Amino acid sequence: MRINITGATGHLGTKVTEEALRHLSPDDLILSVRNPKKATQYVEKGVTVKKADYNVEEEMIKAFKGTDVLIYIPSISFPSTVRIAEFEKSVQAAEKAKVKHMIFVGFVADQENNPFKMSPFFGYASRRLASSNLNYTLIRNAMYADPLVPYLPELVERGRLLYPVGEGKISFISREDIARAIIQLSIKTELHGGRYTLTGKKAYSMPELAEVLSTVSHSTIKYDPMTVEEFASTYDEPKGFGEVLVSLYVAAERNLMDEVTDDYQLITGEKAEDLESYLMHNYKEK
């Protein structure tokens, strides 16, 4: 079985590639990346690296040929229309390359009533795959736990958790656990064709999250949210991103980010790591 990973040098793609190398021979792995120079360390390990820009269908067709399982990790481009155009070319390329199975790595914000600015892409992706000639599996990730680690020092300094979520809740899972599930799902062909939502064991209210962050940092962090407008203005880097980011927390406030499932355990046979445990062994106090 030859597994092909797109976006393999990104934050999640790197984790997926590292996990793949724990279970597969380098000969069974292909990395389709925009910039092959960023993947030289994998070439040295014997992994095949191919150039494949999401905007260049011809490159993707060549990169995807001979693929049994294509793990598609979307770019972080915004607005949604950019990602949709990239995905359209990718699906067409996968069809022409005769990819046997495609695993789409998405996000829980794909509901029809979700105000997250990137939600249209995730809604489109599942419908586009359904109308394609491909065999496919859908993965939906909960919120990444990882960004909380570098964000924690700022929260400690402020003494407050700022997310404008109100009484909503958010479920989290680490990229490491997501990668483990993706590779297990790639290998276990009997699970192909499903729709899986990867989450931790619970969804956290913002006071509960503030308590966890306080415990991990040995500091006092209270839930004291900014307004939607203030949050968007404070985190508007790059320009325009603040509005995109805050729309995610508006979705959480509407109870659209609190899904909890046992799908991770179904796929891997293990439970996803608890959020507090993950933060404890990744956060280093200054």
Shape: globular
Q: At the third CATH level, what is the topology name of the domain at 3-142 and 173-199 and 260-272?
A: Rossmann fold
Q: Report the β-strand fraction as a percent range.
A: 15-25%
CATH superfamily of the domain at 3-142 and 173-199 and 260-272: NAD(P)-binding Rossmann-like Domain
The side-by-side strand order for the widest beta sheet comes to: 3-2-1-4-5-6-10
Task: Summarize the biggest pleated sheet.
Answer: 7 strands, parallel
The counted number of beta strands is 12
Overall pLDDT: 96
Give me the CATH architecture of the domain at 3-142 and 173-199 and 260-272, please. 3-Layer(aba) Sandwich
Rg for CA atoms: 19 Å
Helical proportion, percent range = 40-55%
C-alpha termini separation: 45 Å
Task: Using the coordinates above, name the CATH class of the domain at 3-142 and 173-199 and 260-272.
Answer: Alpha Beta
The ordered string of helix (H) and strand (E) elements is EHEHEHEHEHEEHEEHEEHEHHHH
Question: Helix tally?
Answer: 12
Walkthrough of the structure:
This protein has 286 residues and is an alpha/beta fold. The chain has a domain of 180 residues: Rossmann fold. It has 12 helices and 12 strands. Strand 4, helix 4 and strand 5 form a beta-alpha-beta unit. Helix 3 packs across helix 4 and helix 4 runs parallel beside helix 5. The longest helix has 17 residues.
